[in-house]
Write a structure and sequence with these properties.
By secondary structure, the protein is of the alpha/beta class. The chain folds into two domains: 173 residues, 3-Layer(aba) Sandwich (Rossmann fold); 69 residues, Alpha-Beta Plaits, CATH 3.30.70. Helix content is 38%, strand content 24%. It has twelve helices and 14 strands. The strands form three sheets. It has a six-stranded mixed sheet with strand order 6-7-8-3-9-10, with helices on both faces. A hairpin with a 2-residue loop joins strand 4 and strand 5. Helix 3 crosses helix 4. The relative contact order is 0.12. Bound molecules: adenosine-5'-triphosphate and magnesium ion (MG). The site of magnesium ion (MG) has 4 residues, from helix 1.
Protein backbone atom coordinates (compact mmCIF):
# COMPACT_ATOMS: atom_id res chain seq x y z
CA UNK A 1 0.00 0.00 0.00
CA UNK A 2 1.22 3.46 -0.78
CA UNK A 3 1.69 5.91 2.00
CA UNK A 4 -1.35 8.11 2.70
CA UNK A 5 -0.98 11.68 1.44
CA UNK A 6 -2.13 13.01 4.80
CA UNK A 7 -1.81 11.16 8.04
CA UNK A 8 -2.26 12.40 11.58
CA UNK A 9 -2.04 10.61 14.89
CA UNK A 10 -3.16 11.75 18.29
CA UNK A 11 -3.45 15.43 17.46
CA UNK A 12 -4.44 17.49 20.48
CA UNK A 13 -4.59 21.24 20.97
CA UNK A 14 -5.62 23.48 23.85
CA UNK A 15 -6.29 27.19 23.65
CA UNK A 16 -5.64 28.25 27.23
CA UNK A 17 -7.70 25.82 29.27
CA UNK A 18 -9.98 25.01 26.39
CA UNK A 19 -9.42 21.65 24.76
CA UNK A 20 -10.12 22.40 21.11
CA UNK A 21 -8.79 19.11 19.75
CA UNK A 22 -8.39 15.78 21.50
CA UNK A 23 -6.52 12.80 20.12
CA UNK A 24 -7.53 13.14 16.47
CA UNK A 25 -6.36 10.52 13.98
CA UNK A 26 -6.79 10.98 10.26
CA UNK A 27 -5.60 9.29 7.13
CA UNK A 28 -6.21 10.40 3.56
CA UNK A 29 -5.08 8.03 0.79
CA UNK A 30 -3.38 9.79 -2.11
CA UNK A 31 -5.77 10.97 -4.81
CA UNK A 32 -8.85 10.86 -2.59
CA UNK A 33 -11.01 13.37 -0.75
CA UNK A 34 -11.57 13.30 2.99
CA UNK A 35 -14.45 15.39 4.25
CA UNK A 36 -13.97 16.62 7.80
CA UNK A 37 -17.51 17.27 8.85
CA UNK A 38 -18.50 19.08 12.01
CA UNK A 39 -20.56 21.93 13.46
CA UNK A 40 -19.25 25.36 14.48
CA UNK A 41 -16.41 25.11 16.95
CA UNK A 42 -15.83 21.39 16.35
CA UNK A 43 -12.13 21.87 15.68
CA UNK A 44 -12.06 21.75 11.89
CA UNK A 45 -9.99 24.88 11.30
CA UNK A 46 -7.68 23.92 14.16
CA UNK A 47 -7.02 20.58 12.44
CA UNK A 48 -6.37 22.19 9.07
CA UNK A 49 -4.06 24.81 10.56
CA UNK A 50 -1.99 22.12 12.26
CA UNK A 51 -1.71 20.09 9.06
CA UNK A 52 -0.83 23.21 7.09
CA UNK A 53 1.97 24.00 9.61
CA UNK A 54 0.32 27.23 10.76
CA UNK A 55 -0.28 25.95 14.28
CA UNK A 56 1.72 23.61 16.51
CA UNK A 57 -0.22 20.83 18.24
CA UNK A 58 0.31 20.12 21.95
CA UNK A 59 0.56 16.44 21.18
CA UNK A 60 0.50 14.11 18.22
CA UNK A 61 2.23 13.93 14.88
CA UNK A 62 1.35 14.28 11.24
CA UNK A 63 2.81 13.86 7.80
CA UNK A 64 1.63 15.59 4.65
CA UNK A 65 2.87 14.59 1.20
CA UNK A 66 5.48 12.42 2.86
CA UNK A 67 6.91 15.22 5.01
CA UNK A 68 6.72 15.56 8.77
CA UNK A 69 4.60 18.55 9.71
CA UNK A 70 6.54 19.36 12.88
CA UNK A 71 10.05 18.62 11.66
CA UNK A 72 9.82 19.71 8.02
CA UNK A 73 7.27 22.53 7.91
CA UNK A 74 8.95 24.28 4.98
CA UNK A 75 8.90 21.06 2.94
CA UNK A 76 5.22 20.60 3.78
CA UNK A 77 4.40 24.14 2.72
CA UNK A 78 5.99 23.55 -0.69
CA UNK A 79 3.59 20.67 -1.29
CA UNK A 80 0.28 22.04 -0.13
CA UNK A 81 -2.36 24.47 -1.28
CA UNK A 82 -4.58 26.04 1.34
CA UNK A 83 -7.76 27.98 1.00
CA UNK A 84 -8.71 29.29 4.38
CA UNK A 85 -12.17 29.68 5.77
CA UNK A 86 -12.21 33.35 4.80
CA UNK A 87 -11.19 34.13 1.24
CA UNK A 88 -7.68 35.50 1.28
CA UNK A 89 -7.71 37.39 -2.00
CA UNK A 90 -6.54 40.99 -2.03
CA UNK A 91 -9.65 42.99 -2.91
CA UNK A 92 -7.64 45.96 -4.18
CA UNK A 93 -6.03 43.90 -6.92
CA UNK A 94 -7.61 42.36 -9.99
CA UNK A 95 -8.09 38.61 -10.19
CA UNK A 96 -5.17 38.35 -12.57
CA UNK A 97 -2.90 40.47 -10.36
CA UNK A 98 -3.79 38.34 -7.34
CA UNK A 99 -2.65 35.16 -9.02
CA UNK A 100 0.37 36.65 -10.76
CA UNK A 101 1.52 38.06 -7.44
CA UNK A 102 1.49 34.62 -5.89
CA UNK A 103 3.43 33.23 -8.82
CA UNK A 104 6.05 35.92 -8.34
CA UNK A 105 6.18 35.29 -4.58
CA UNK A 106 6.73 31.63 -5.39
CA UNK A 107 9.70 32.66 -7.59
CA UNK A 108 8.14 31.40 -10.80
CA UNK A 109 9.50 34.44 -12.61
CA UNK A 110 7.23 37.10 -14.15
CA UNK A 111 6.69 35.44 -17.46
CA UNK A 112 5.85 32.02 -16.06
CA UNK A 113 3.66 33.66 -13.41
CA UNK A 114 1.64 35.36 -16.18
CA UNK A 115 1.24 32.15 -18.11
CA UNK A 116 0.18 30.21 -15.03
CA UNK A 117 -2.27 32.96 -14.00
CA UNK A 118 -3.93 32.96 -17.42
CA UNK A 119 -4.21 29.18 -17.29
CA UNK A 120 -5.81 29.17 -13.83
CA UNK A 121 -8.17 32.06 -14.62
CA UNK A 122 -9.38 30.08 -17.61
CA UNK A 123 -9.75 26.87 -15.62
CA UNK A 124 -11.78 28.62 -12.92
CA UNK A 125 -13.94 30.51 -15.42
CA UNK A 126 -12.62 33.90 -14.43
CA UNK A 127 -11.09 34.97 -17.73
CA UNK A 128 -13.81 37.52 -18.46
CA UNK A 129 -13.45 39.02 -14.99
CA UNK A 130 -9.67 38.69 -14.82
CA UNK A 131 -8.97 42.41 -15.08
CA UNK A 132 -11.67 43.57 -12.69
CA UNK A 133 -10.83 44.39 -9.09
CA UNK A 134 -11.51 41.44 -6.81
CA UNK A 135 -13.60 43.68 -4.54
CA UNK A 136 -16.20 43.71 -7.30
CA UNK A 137 -16.33 39.91 -7.50
CA UNK A 138 -19.29 37.94 -6.21
CA UNK A 139 -18.76 35.58 -3.26
CA UNK A 140 -18.56 32.61 -5.60
CA UNK A 141 -16.01 34.32 -7.85
CA UNK A 142 -13.86 35.20 -4.85
CA UNK A 143 -13.88 31.62 -3.68
CA UNK A 144 -12.90 30.47 -7.15
CA UNK A 145 -10.11 33.01 -7.27
CA UNK A 146 -8.96 31.89 -3.85
CA UNK A 147 -8.94 28.27 -4.95
CA UNK A 148 -7.08 29.16 -8.15
CA UNK A 149 -4.53 31.12 -6.11
CA UNK A 150 -3.86 28.10 -3.90
CA UNK A 151 -3.05 25.99 -6.96
CA UNK A 152 -0.38 28.17 -8.56
CA UNK A 153 2.42 25.80 -7.56
CA UNK A 154 0.46 22.66 -8.54
CA UNK A 155 0.49 21.25 -5.01
CA UNK A 156 -0.28 17.53 -4.69
CA UNK A 157 -2.24 18.13 -1.48
CA UNK A 158 -5.00 20.67 -1.07
CA UNK A 159 -6.64 21.84 2.14
CA UNK A 160 -9.99 23.54 1.76
CA UNK A 161 -11.51 25.01 4.91
CA UNK A 162 -15.25 25.38 4.33
CA UNK A 163 -14.79 26.18 0.64
CA UNK A 164 -18.43 26.94 -0.07
CA UNK A 165 -19.86 28.29 3.16
CA UNK A 166 -22.16 31.19 2.46
CA UNK A 167 -22.46 30.51 -1.28
CA UNK A 168 -25.74 29.86 -3.04
CA UNK A 169 -26.35 26.40 -4.41
CA UNK A 170 -25.37 27.22 -8.00
CA UNK A 171 -22.02 28.72 -6.99
CA UNK A 172 -21.49 25.82 -4.65
CA UNK A 173 -22.07 23.30 -7.42
CA UNK A 174 -19.65 25.14 -9.70
CA UNK A 175 -17.01 24.96 -7.00
CA UNK A 176 -17.69 21.29 -6.40
CA UNK A 177 -17.13 20.62 -10.08
CA UNK A 178 -13.84 22.48 -9.96
CA UNK A 179 -12.67 20.60 -6.88
CA UNK A 180 -13.60 17.34 -8.61
CA UNK A 181 -11.46 18.34 -11.58
CA UNK A 182 -8.52 18.74 -9.24
CA UNK A 183 -9.16 15.33 -7.73
CA UNK A 184 -9.42 13.80 -11.20
CA UNK A 185 -6.01 15.19 -11.97
CA UNK A 186 -4.58 13.38 -8.94
CA UNK A 187 -4.71 15.98 -6.18
CA UNK A 188 -5.46 14.78 -2.64
CA UNK A 189 -8.01 16.94 -0.86
CA UNK A 190 -8.88 17.41 2.78
CA UNK A 191 -11.87 19.65 3.04
CA UNK A 192 -13.84 20.78 6.04
CA UNK A 193 -17.50 21.44 5.78
CA UNK A 194 -20.67 21.96 7.73
CA UNK A 195 -22.68 20.95 4.68
CA UNK A 196 -23.68 17.32 4.67
CA UNK A 197 -24.51 17.51 1.00
CA UNK A 198 -20.99 18.73 0.29
CA UNK A 199 -19.45 15.78 2.10
CA UNK A 200 -21.80 13.47 0.25
CA UNK A 201 -20.94 15.01 -3.13
CA UNK A 202 -17.20 15.31 -2.82
CA UNK A 203 -15.78 13.04 -0.18
CA UNK A 204 -14.65 9.43 -0.63
CA UNK A 205 -14.54 9.19 3.14
CA UNK A 206 -15.96 11.35 5.86
CA UNK A 207 -14.61 11.97 9.35
CA UNK A 208 -17.15 13.46 11.72
CA UNK A 209 -15.73 15.73 14.39
CA UNK A 210 -17.58 17.24 17.32
CA UNK A 211 -16.21 19.12 20.32
CA UNK A 212 -12.65 18.39 19.31
CA UNK A 213 -13.07 14.63 19.01
CA UNK A 214 -13.49 12.35 16.05
CA UNK A 215 -16.74 10.52 16.56
CA UNK A 216 -17.06 8.54 13.34
CA UNK A 217 -15.27 7.77 10.12
CA UNK A 218 -16.32 5.95 6.96
CA UNK A 219 -17.64 6.35 3.46
CA UNK A 220 -20.85 8.39 3.24
CA UNK A 221 -22.70 5.14 2.48
CA UNK A 222 -21.20 3.32 5.45
CA UNK A 223 -22.17 6.12 7.77
CA UNK A 224 -25.70 6.16 6.41
CA UNK A 225 -26.02 2.43 6.82
CA UNK A 226 -24.76 2.66 10.36
CA UNK A 227 -27.67 4.88 11.30
CA UNK A 228 -30.26 2.63 9.75
CA UNK A 229 -29.59 2.40 6.04
CA UNK A 230 -32.43 2.41 3.56
CA UNK A 231 -36.00 1.71 4.59
CA UNK A 232 -38.97 0.54 2.60
CA UNK A 233 -42.04 2.55 3.53
CA UNK A 234 -45.53 1.54 2.48
CA UNK A 235 -48.61 3.60 3.25
CA UNK A 236 -52.21 2.67 2.57
CA UNK A 237 -55.50 4.53 2.35
CA UNK A 238 -57.42 2.18 4.57
CA UNK A 239 -56.28 1.37 8.13
CA UNK A 240 -57.64 -2.15 7.72
CA UNK A 241 -55.01 -2.84 5.03
CA UNK A 242 -52.18 -1.98 7.39
CA UNK A 243 -52.09 -5.47 8.91
CA UNK A 244 -51.52 -7.08 5.49
CA UNK A 245 -48.73 -4.65 4.74
CA UNK A 246 -47.11 -5.23 8.13
CA UNK A 247 -47.18 -9.00 7.67
CA UNK A 248 -45.68 -8.70 4.21
CA UNK A 249 -42.90 -6.39 5.41
CA UNK A 250 -42.17 -8.64 8.39
CA UNK A 251 -41.04 -11.36 5.99
CA UNK A 252 -38.10 -9.15 4.96
CA UNK A 253 -36.30 -8.93 8.23
CA UNK A 254 -35.96 -10.37 11.72
CA UNK A 255 -36.84 -6.92 12.96
CA UNK A 256 -40.50 -5.97 13.49
CA UNK A 257 -41.81 -3.39 11.01
CA UNK A 258 -42.40 0.08 12.38
CA UNK A 259 -46.07 1.02 12.15
CA UNK A 260 -47.48 4.51 12.29
CA UNK A 261 -51.28 4.33 12.60
CA UNK A 262 -51.80 8.07 12.05
CA UNK A 263 -50.14 8.14 8.64
CA UNK A 264 -51.18 4.50 7.95
CA UNK A 265 -47.57 3.72 7.12
CA UNK A 266 -45.45 0.69 7.85
CA UNK A 267 -41.72 0.55 7.25
CA UNK A 268 -38.79 -1.80 7.58
CA UNK A 269 -35.03 -1.76 7.08
CA UNK A 270 -34.27 -2.78 3.55
CA UNK A 271 -31.41 -5.20 3.23
CA UNK A 272 -32.50 -7.34 0.28
CA UNK A 273 -32.43 -4.56 -2.31
CA UNK A 274 -34.58 -4.54 -5.39
CA UNK A 275 -35.67 -8.18 -5.12
CA UNK A 276 -37.25 -7.56 -1.74
CA UNK A 277 -39.15 -4.60 -3.16
CA UNK A 278 -40.49 -6.71 -6.02
CA UNK A 279 -41.61 -9.53 -3.74
CA UNK A 280 -43.46 -7.17 -1.38
CA UNK A 281 -45.12 -5.48 -4.30
CA UNK A 282 -46.30 -8.86 -5.66
CA UNK A 283 -47.51 -9.97 -2.26
CA UNK A 284 -49.60 -6.85 -1.78
CA UNK A 285 -51.09 -7.17 -5.22
CA UNK A 286 -52.06 -10.79 -4.54
CA UNK A 287 -53.76 -9.69 -1.33
CA UNK A 288 -55.65 -7.00 -3.25
CA UNK A 289 -53.98 -4.13 -1.39
CA UNK A 290 -53.16 -1.08 -3.44
CA UNK A 291 -50.59 1.04 -1.59
CA UNK A 292 -51.08 4.79 -1.49
CA UNK A 293 -47.34 5.22 -1.40
CA UNK A 294 -44.53 2.75 -1.82
CA UNK A 295 -41.12 4.29 -1.29
CA UNK A 296 -37.54 3.60 -0.39
CA UNK A 297 -36.27 6.25 1.97
CA UNK A 298 -32.54 6.63 2.00
CA UNK A 299 -30.81 7.77 5.16
CA UNK A 300 -29.32 11.16 4.58
CA UNK A 301 -26.14 12.62 5.95
CA UNK A 302 -28.49 14.63 8.16
CA UNK A 303 -29.62 11.41 9.80
CA UNK A 304 -25.99 10.45 10.29
CA UNK A 305 -25.12 13.75 11.84
CA UNK A 306 -28.10 13.79 14.13
CA UNK A 307 -27.56 10.21 15.26
CA UNK A 308 -23.88 10.79 15.95
CA UNK A 309 -23.88 14.21 17.55
CA UNK A 310 -27.38 14.42 19.00
CA UNK A 311 -27.97 17.65 17.13
CA UNK A 312 -28.71 18.45 13.54
CA UNK A 313 -26.21 20.25 11.41
CA UNK A 314 -26.65 24.00 11.77
CA UNK A 315 -25.78 24.63 8.19
CA UNK A 316 -27.36 21.80 6.28
CA UNK A 317 -29.63 22.46 3.33
CA UNK A 318 -29.03 26.15 2.84
CA UNK A 319 -30.45 26.90 6.26
CA UNK A 320 -33.96 25.75 5.61
CA UNK A 321 -35.18 25.06 9.15
CA UNK A 322 -38.33 23.29 8.03
CA UNK A 323 -36.36 20.78 6.07
CA UNK A 324 -34.15 20.15 9.08
CA UNK A 325 -37.15 19.59 11.32
CA UNK A 326 -38.49 17.17 8.80
CA UNK A 327 -35.27 15.22 8.81
CA UNK A 328 -35.23 15.18 12.59
CA UNK A 329 -38.77 13.84 12.69
CA UNK A 330 -38.08 11.23 10.11
CA UNK A 331 -35.15 10.05 12.13
CA UNK A 332 -37.33 9.76 15.20
CA UNK A 333 -39.96 7.83 13.34
CA UNK A 334 -37.24 5.56 12.07
CA UNK A 335 -35.70 4.74 15.42
CA UNK A 336 -38.97 3.85 17.22
N1 LIG B 1 -7.00 31.25 18.94
C1 LIG B 1 -7.96 30.74 19.71
N2 LIG B 1 -8.03 31.03 21.02
C2 LIG B 1 -8.99 30.49 21.80
N3 LIG B 1 -9.95 29.64 21.38
C3 LIG B 1 -9.92 29.31 20.08
C4 LIG B 1 -8.94 29.84 19.18
N4 LIG B 1 -9.18 29.33 17.95
C5 LIG B 1 -10.26 28.53 18.08
N5 LIG B 1 -10.70 28.50 19.35
C6 LIG B 1 -11.81 27.70 19.86
O1 LIG B 1 -11.54 26.34 19.60
C7 LIG B 1 -12.70 25.65 19.13
C8 LIG B 1 -12.45 25.04 17.80
O2 LIG B 1 -12.25 26.08 16.86
P1 LIG B 1 -12.13 25.82 15.30
O3 LIG B 1 -11.92 27.15 14.68
O4 LIG B 1 -11.12 24.78 15.04
O5 LIG B 1 -13.57 25.25 14.98
P2 LIG B 1 -14.26 24.99 13.57
O6 LIG B 1 -14.72 23.58 13.58
O7 LIG B 1 -13.36 25.42 12.48
O8 LIG B 1 -15.53 25.93 13.65
P3 LIG B 1 -16.26 26.81 12.50
O9 LIG B 1 -17.19 25.88 11.81
O10 LIG B 1 -17.01 27.83 13.27
O11 LIG B 1 -15.20 27.38 11.63
C9 LIG B 1 -13.81 26.68 19.13
O12 LIG B 1 -14.55 26.54 20.31
C10 LIG B 1 -13.09 28.01 19.11
O13 LIG B 1 -13.84 29.00 19.77
MG1 LIG C 1 -13.45 26.83 11.03
Amino acid sequence: MTEPAVSAEGLSKKYGDFQALQDVNLSVPAGTVLGLLGPNGAGKTTTVRILATLLTPDAGQATVAGQDVLRKPAEVRKRIGLTGQYAAVDARLTGRENIELIGVLLHLGRKAAKVRAAELLEQFELTDAADKLAKNYSGGMRRRLDLAASLVSRPPVLFLDEPTTGLDLTSRMTLWRMVKEQVDSGVTVLLTTQYLEEADQLANRVAVIDKGRLIAEGTPDELKRRVGGDRLEVSVTDTSDLAVVTTALASLSAEQPTVDQDSRTASIALSGGIKAIASISAELEAAGVEPLDFAVRRSSMDDVFLALTGHSSAASDDGDPQQQDLNANEKEAQSV
